[in-house]
Amino acid sequence: MRKNDTPLVSVIMPVYNAEMYILDAISSVIQQTYSNWEFIIVEDCSTDNTREILADINDARIKILYNSKNSGIAYSTNKAIAHSNGKYIALLDDDDMAFLDRLEIQVGYMEENAFIDMLGGRTANMDSDGVVVSYGNCPKHNPLYIKAMLLFTNGHGISNGTFMIRHSFIEKHRLCYKDECYGMQDYLFLIDSSKYGNITSIEHFFLKRRVHDNNTTYVMKKKYGSLRAKKYAEFQRYSISASGFKLSDEQYSIINKAISEWGETRCDNVKELNLLYKVFQEMIKQGREMNIEYLDELIIVCKQHWLNQLKKMDLFDEGFTFGL
């Protein structure tokens, strides 16, 4: 297939203080087996040598935009999307690397599956030296299951840096990344996207994700632990209510307590456990009344969270069941 017959892909990457790894990230795009791409980098007023490194890049396919002041990942990502021309948007962080066939595989899948709006894949975790040390969880495939899952959690096994997104989907629903999310802007973007479209992942490895002490997720958790936890709870409430469910403050509170981001909290007693059970039953009841397309998946997700809670409380073998 000739280059002009293939869809243009816009790879976007916000950059801040990335002098150690940015050339690896850029090289992983330049070496892609898929050739019809543009690479939009937004430099967010780095205080290290990132700007100097970018100044030495000479590739007509790479467009570098400079913020006038440090504005954060959300702003920089939105800016890159606004300046992109591709049919598809591919996300990449400045300390990660794309597998070299990533764009080729993703474009092929998206072209053959017009009902999919966002496509992710598997990650390999590498250390600061670029050595793969572990592999990410197997991603979820069923768009309806992902829709149900995102009512409660940030989608374990779903990595933002693996996603390819239809540009038309972003424009149609005016989707964007939000500020003041304490590093969870990708979670909120997934929630918003799940209300309008279909998200899936495949088994193929798309991303080498760098795990190190300066990783944004770890930094934000360490610096803003309690604020991040509060924001995560807000996102849960928003996701559930935006899907049409109507719960009381008490019902939301038990969900927030039982299903925290890192799993460090749980129900404290059987009374709270019974309340959680009733909340799940109420959501399933309301799901039936609303005739939601993902009812079966909602039941599965509720059962999974219920069983996980039993395990945390060492009650798994004491006869507790989840009836419908």
Shape: globular
Percentage of helical residues?
Answer: 40-55%
Mean pLDDT: 92
For the CA atoms, what is the radius of gyration? 21 Å
Count the DSSP helices: 12
- Name the assembly state: single chain
Describe the model:
The chain has 324 residues and is an alpha/beta fold. The protein has helices spanning 22-30, 50-55, 72-82, 102-112, 143-149, 167-172, 185-194, 216-223, 225-242, 249-258, 270-290, 295-312, and strands at residues 9-15, 37-43, 62-66, 88-91, 97-98, 118-126, 132-135, 164-166, 199-210. Strands 1, 2, 3, 4, 5, 6, 7, 8 and 9 form a 9-stranded mixed beta sheet that branches. Helix 9 crosses helix 10, helix 10 (249-258) crosses helix 11 (270-290) and helix 11 packs antiparallel against helix 12. The longest helix has 21 residues, at 270-290. It is globular, with a radius of gyration of 21 Å.
